[in-house]
Amino acid sequence: MATVILTEAAAYEVKDMLKSNDMSHGYLKIKVNGGGCTGLTYGMSAEEEPGDNDEVIEYYGLKVLVDKHNAPVLNGTTIDFKQSLMGGGFQIDNLNAIASCGCGSSFKTATVSGNPEQC
Question: PANTHER family per the record (predicted)?
């Protein structure tokens, strides 16, 4: 199983974002940071090239980077992009998350609790 799975909608949304920022050949980096109410938060950034610890996965022509240190926390995570009347946004479904905050922006796993902050 791939560490992170991007749906077709998510991959095409990111490719459009990269293209509009003159990074058509760039990579999407998915990471986990400490913080938030529950201890861990997701991060996504555009990168010019992979780092030494990055796993490279490709979906629908988009190259995705996941730092090998974050791989256990992200293993089996699906990222989708949904459009609604209120706009669009990425939805992250992490099978490893055992708790999340009320707003859904932070989480923790059974083995990694991160650095929870006061809400």
Answer: IRON-SULFUR CLUSTER ASSEMBLY 2 HOMOLOG, MITOCHONDRIAL
Question: pLDDT tens digits for the chain (119 residues)?
Answer: 568 999 999 999 999 999 999 999 999 999 999 888 888 999 999 999 999 999 999 999 999 999 999 999 999 999 999 988 888 899 999 988 888 877 667 888 888 877 777 66
Q: What is the pTM for the complete model shown?
A: 0.86
Q: What is the DSSP letter of 32?
A: E
Domain boundaries, the chain: 2-92
DSSP result, 36-95 = TTTEEEEEEEEESS--TTEEEEEETTEEEEEETTTHHHHTTEEEEEEEETTEEEEEEE-T
CATH superfamily of this structure's domain 2-92 = HesB-like domain (2.60.300.12)
Cross-strand pairs, 46: 28
